[in-house]
């Protein structure tokens, strides 16, 4: 468990961070320059907050009231930096070996495990200068893991990579996040990464934590549009793969007792999955609909409506217990007579759901 | 192949002994000073920097004279060292090494400081997050990355120590077999009537030694650069 309640500053930006998260992956999410990296540096002990408290798994790393301030090397927080920061004069093997030595990871099988998890066997005798960006980042993750950290901080590990490298490394991150037994703090300004990896979402804006909660809850909150960006805003639905129709290359996912058809995934039936649905990809209908190509029609309850300036309105609905965020024109809201407490049918195009954004959570 | 006279041989071995001793003592101190100036902020930073560079801007004769006052038999430091450790500098080859080391010191500190400043502190940060102690970070990250600069400093210092003249002759005089290094021997020969041939032979010896050292250091520097660059 990570507990953070700190105040400080970095240059002109005042920092005020207050959040706690349980095991699993916690994302610090916000625009570039929002202060995310500063907060992680304070947690890692590379920057000093003015006051507050930082604790991991109950152990206090920093407490201004009690005068506790462990130096970075004694905090045991594995840090993966945006720019990898491998030691350029050492081979990959030596980079890993020093981390293992620092973490007193005597266990040889652990070394093999990490190397296999990240697929870096073939890189061991090379030097960082000869590696691609994605390879370097994988080695950096391995190095952090081998220092036997009690928590892992990943500061935009994909930000310096192009799209191809990103998709090369994301599967490794997926596996890591599901297999790691330590809390992971994942810093990103990319919503797709956060939705895919994080269980808990902490939204940072102008140096402050503005929201903290489960990824599904936070992503559907209407008032956080500024932080998450309108275009990408959406919700995360949790369901279970129920089957695959190979004839049409479609998979079905059960969500709150309803069936949702999505482009075929490779995920085993019975696996719990998260899928992200962008608010602008959902339509609402009232009354009977027929003659439509849209395959997914889910009855929902309208919970809240926020009209914005310009043409847009944000509607928060519920499918059973789960929130669903919908983006319509104000004109449609008016014409359909939508109001909080009313019922409607949410229409989601099957192909609007990106199969890369359907993620098995590992719980079978 | 010319054969060396015993006096020439003596001057050559003495010069190498003086320069090597000066380097062995002054280089580690210069690494420490370079690191401190590059990485630490402390009161009197500018003053320390100034004092280190003094021998570079003072006339060597002045430095030699100051050494004579401080480290001579009756000087405050010299008498203390002699009575406590039995260590004598005045008119000994050790004095020549001291003068050479002091004169070479500022020339070594500067490239070392620059080399350490060029090591990205972010790498040291990363090493700290792994749980490595600062002294280990220094040994496995900072110093290896600064090694080309330290090597350059060593060569510069060795060359300066080999050729040191003014401070040496002022401090420890010009005693054959004890303090008459190559530079002093050339000077002595040039002062002697009909000494041109002797001076010329000593000059050739100096050139050969200096050139050999330069070539050897180039080879080492290339190997280091390959290791650190990694783009083999």
Automatic annotation (TrEMBL), chain A:
The lineage of its organism: Bacteria, Pseudomonadati, Pseudomonadota, Alphaproteobacteria, Hyphomicrobiales. The keyword Zinc does not apply. Transmembrane segments: none annotated. Belongs to the ABC transporter superfamily. GO terms for molecular function: ABC-type transporter activity; ATP binding; ATP hydrolysis activity; molybdate ion transmembrane transporter activity. The gene is modC. PANTHER family: ABC TRANSPORTER I FAMILY MEMBER 10. InterPro entries: AAA+_ATPase, ABC_transporter-like_ATP-bd, ABC_transporter-like_CS, Mo/tungstate-bd_C_term_dom, ModC_ABC_ATP-bd, Molybdenum_import_ModC, Mop_domain, P-loop_NTPase. Residues 291-357 form the Mop domain. This is Molybdenum ABC transporter ATP-binding protein. One of its GO terms (cellular component) is membrane. Residues 1-231 form the ABC transporter domain. It comes from Stappia sediminis.
TrEMBL record, chain B:
It holds the Pfam family BPD_transp_1. It comes from the Bacteria. The keyword Transport applies. CDD domains: TM_PBP2. It is found in: Cell inner membrane; Cell membrane. Keywords: Cell inner membrane, Cell membrane, Membrane, Molybdenum, Transmembrane, Transmembrane helix, Transport. It is a multi-pass membrane protein. The keyword Zinc does not apply. Residues 12-215 form the ABC transmembrane type-1 domain. One of its GO terms (cellular component) is plasma membrane. One of its GO terms (molecular function) is molybdate ion transmembrane transporter activity. Gene3D superfamilies: MetI-like. Belongs to the binding-protein-dependent transport system permease family. CysTW subfamily. Part of the binding-protein-dependent transport system for molybdenum; probably responsible for the translocation of the substrate across the membrane. This is Molybdenum transport system permease. It comes from Stappia sediminis. The gene is modB.
